[in-house]
């Protein structure tokens, strides 16, 4: 299950933080590191602070955009302070996040996304996630270095993984396949097109699409359910095309 979990670092400024994050990952059994537009990489400082996790550094995947790094993932969790103006599902406790991630990792790749040292993830980047998670900390000084945040969440994933291995085996039940982020993006593009065509999106300030994205993130539709929804949208388009134009 851990082999299906990737850590994504977005535009890391200090290469030493890449190395320290790689070390944090390896101590908890994770090996897949994705780097989105790092300022300097490869770099000797990254290798030095990896301190035994040089293989994680050497095998890191470079991506031009966050979309490229998460396109095939069935769940994407953005690590950030809770943003109440974004209606994404939010894990208030990392252990709850870890249990969900480990369960979903049985189906496909899952990503934990960490932002820049100075200001984290942008709102737009968080909108590309399916969930958010925060690390409870001292309210008077709750600032974690990025590699420390990686360590905390990787530890929770490792704990959840161990609990899953130690739990009594349940009778196998077939779990519906989850869509990846590319398939979800196609669905949301299709939904946007239909809502625009029928005149539903008349109040941009209502942030209707953000709330719908959050709704589908909470619902976690399967690939089959997503196909049904897209078929429904296609039927609406065909019906409108078949109607004679108004005089």
From TrEMBL:
- Which segments does the entry list as coiled coil? none
Q: What is its EC number?
A: 2.1.1.200
In this protein, which residues make up the domain named tRNA/rRNA methyltransferase SpoU type? 5-155
Q: Domain of life of the organism in this record?
A: Bacteria
Subunit annotation: Homodimer.
Q: Which family does it belong to?
A: Belongs to the class IV-like SAM-binding methyltransferase superfamily. RNA methyltransferase TrmH family.
Q: What is this protein called?
A: tRNA (cytidine/uridine-2'-O-)-methyltransferase TrmJ
């Amino acid at each position: 299950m851990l082999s299906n979990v990737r850590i994504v670092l977005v535009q890391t400024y200090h290469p030493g933080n890449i190395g320290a994050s790689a070390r944090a990952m390896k101590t908890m059994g994770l090996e897949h590191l994705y780097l989105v537009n790092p300022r300097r990489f490869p770099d000797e400082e990254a290798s030095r602070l990896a301190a035994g996790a040089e293989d994680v550094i050497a095998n890191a995947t470079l991506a031009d955009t966050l979309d490229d790094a998460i396109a095939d993932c069935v769940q994407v969790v953005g690590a950030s302070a809770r943003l109440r103006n974004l209606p994404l599902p939010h894990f208030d406790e990392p252990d709850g996040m870890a249990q969900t991630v480990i369960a979903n990792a049985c189906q496909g790749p899952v990503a934990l996304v960490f932002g820049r040292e100075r200001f984290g993830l942008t709102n737009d980047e968080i909108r590309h996630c399916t969930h958010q998670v925060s690390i409870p900390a001292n309210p008077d000084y709750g600032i974690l270095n990025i590699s420390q945040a990686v360590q905390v969440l990787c530890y929770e994933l490792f704990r959840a993984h161990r609990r899953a291995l130690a739990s009594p085996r349940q009778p196998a039940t077939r779990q519906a396949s989850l869509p990846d982020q590319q398939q979800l993006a196609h669905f949301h593009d299709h939904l946007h097109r239909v809502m625009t065509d029928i005149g539903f999106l008349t109040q941009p300030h209502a942030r209707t699409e953000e709330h719908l994205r959050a709704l589908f993130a909470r619902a976690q539709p399967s690939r089959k359910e997503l196909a049904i929804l897209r078929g429904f949208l296609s039927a609406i388009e065909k019906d409108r095309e078949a109607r004679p134009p108004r005089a």
